[in-house]
Amino acid sequence: MDCVSDVGLGQGIPSGLSVGSWHDESAARHYRFADFFAGLGGFHVGLSKLGHECVFACELDDDLREVYQQNFGIRPEGDIRSVKETDVPPHDILCAGFPCQPFSLAGKKKGAACPSSGKLIDDVFRIVKYRQPRYVLLENVPNVLTIADGTFWQHIQTSFDALGYEVQHRIYSPLQFGLPQQRNRLFVVASRCGMEHFDWPDPTDIDVKPLWQLVLESTADSRLIEPAKLTTLEKWNELLPELDGLSSHTLIASEFGATYPLDGLSPGRPWRSLHGSFGVPLGGLPDRETVIQALPHYAANNVNGKPPEWMRKSILYSRTVYQKNPEFFDEWKKGMVKLPNSWHKLEWRGDRAQRNIWKQTIQFRASGIRIMRPEMAPSLVAMTPTQTPIIGSARRYLGVKEAASLQALDCLRAFPANQARAFKALGNAVNARIVYEIAHNLLSK
Predict the structure, then answer these.
(1) Which residues carry out catalysis?
(2) How far apart are the C-alpha atoms of 408 and 430, rounded to whole Å?
(3) Tens of pLDDT, residues 323-339
(4) CATH number of the domain at 32-208+431-443, please?
């Protein structure tokens, strides 16, 4: 098939963009691309580095449209559903990081049945059908492949096939391309020229840059750890030397001294000799309902006060730890009782040779406090400010520019002024380094 486009060639990399140690070679031909669901411009950065030119962008969020214009000199259109095919200029590559909420594990999992955003992919196909770009590049969460028993992915494949495109897909993480973040994403390449010339990037020989090399001495948006969190982490740090080893199981402070049964307190079951959350005696409580409320929240909120099965190993581990030195833990836990429930849990994924929280990366999550190796950052998702990673050695949160480096977007001049919105945008962003590597292989031959 003859796929040579009559579209003009691009104008190169936008001024002011720098991507550090990326390759300098450009594609053999320069193409024009359209950037849908543009966000912070991950596709734009990756393709611009190869010398390709953005001729159209579309983004629903008002703030992100303003940021996109500041960074790239292009004002994106708004809702894709209001964009007429005829208003989209001719282009060789259509990019779309279409909304992932209906398909992620944290989302509604409704796929194509979701009326608000699940069917927006059909607006992409509408424009592809009219403009017939040479290539289509998509990015989303891996669950797109399996949502609705695979019917949504089948819808994507069938739609491309009907439009004359061959489709391939691959799951990549920034970690494979030298960035210290494990964040699996699905990348899709569709071509109306065949795929004989294309090989997916092989990232096996790329060294991972540790997080501390991305940390700046100071950032304009630096946030120190709040006093209550600082005190809590100090408390957990006091506990670590008392452990025989660091287990992969979560350590749960509210289980220190607890003896309630893990199969629940069914009606009629004796409970007066048992102990609930933080070892509180249950014998003096008036009735079964009050007893259940005195259990840890994850048990109290379930039928008969039975904790979730998936927590059993962590509960048993925590109780075993307590029994080895109950006097120490009885004194230690006094400062933990009134803290938020999620702060009662410590999950260690850090360096076991460095039994010190302040030498690790830290994240306060809804499921507990997670400790990670100092060279790694947690997966960037649309996180709240309280979930922002903490650089233990600096006792402060990761800054926006530092987080942007995990998405290979630290070259951008502008981000949303509100830090919470900036981190949300970074969590939703397409990783520019991965885009660059895929596009390099696709377009340089």
Answers:
(1) 100
(2) 9
(3) 999 999 999 999 899 99
(4) 3.40.50.150
